[in-house]
Amino acid sequence: MAISKIKAAIRSHHRRLDKGVDEETKQSISRKLDGLNYELNKVKEDELSRKMSSRYHKIKFIEKRKLFRLINSIKNNKINKNDTHPDSKRALFKYRQQLNYIINYPTNIKYISVLHSPSNSADTKSRQEKLDDVESKMNAGDISSTPELIVFKSLQSDNVNEVEGSKGSKQKPQTQESQKSHKSQKSHHHQPSEDSDDQANLSADDFFE
């Protein structure tokens, strides 16, 4: 139900209460109001989440892709060069922590970049608290310790959609006018000339036998 309709229903029930009703009806209306208020809050939260997701989609996508590449770079170095340096392990965990930060970031609040310095101390504190929470959940096994696998599927899906979109834009359907023009050109191309018609008629005439 739309927000405007829910609000209208709430106002309507409040008007009924203001007019004075018996206790049983009052309890019934109160229960309905509780349900409507819950639904209103839920719809508002969903709308805010959609708005925030749309607003911060691009920056999240860019940061996820950067971290995904950094993680893969370290993993490839470990495979190719047998790199077991502690700094590499710390960097790998840090990038995975930051990637999980993006994946698990609340959708109904302003996004604070994990790769760029926050603009104020409050955002710096909030980001660090979220990173600490992510770290504890990773260590406890509550969230994935290899988030790059999740992002890999997401990036694949985005790339497929992008390719299909570009293909669709290139393949423009023929309009009726262009189809008619094409048919006209085709029929004109195969239509015999007047000279050839005359020659055919002459050759078929008994006079020339």
From TrEMBL:
Matching InterPro entries: Efg1, EFG1_rRNA-proc
Record's compositionally biased regions (Basic residues): 181-190
Bias (Basic and acidic residues) ranges: 124-136
GO cellular component assignments: nucleolus; preribosome, small subunit precursor
Region of interest (Disordered), residue spans: 118-140, 160-209
Location within or outside the cell: Nucleus, Nucleolus
Annotated keywords: Coiled coil, Nucleus, rRNA processing
Record has Metal-binding as a keyword: no
Domain of life: Eukaryota
GO terms (BP aspect): maturation of SSU-rRNA from tricistronic rRNA transcript (SSU-rRNA, 5.8S rRNA, LSU-rRNA)
Record keyword Endoplasmic reticulum present: no
Primary location class: nucleus
Similarity comment text for this entry: Belongs to the EFG1 family.
Name the record gives this protein: rRNA-processing protein EFG1
Organism in which the protein naturally occurs: Wallemia ichthyophaga
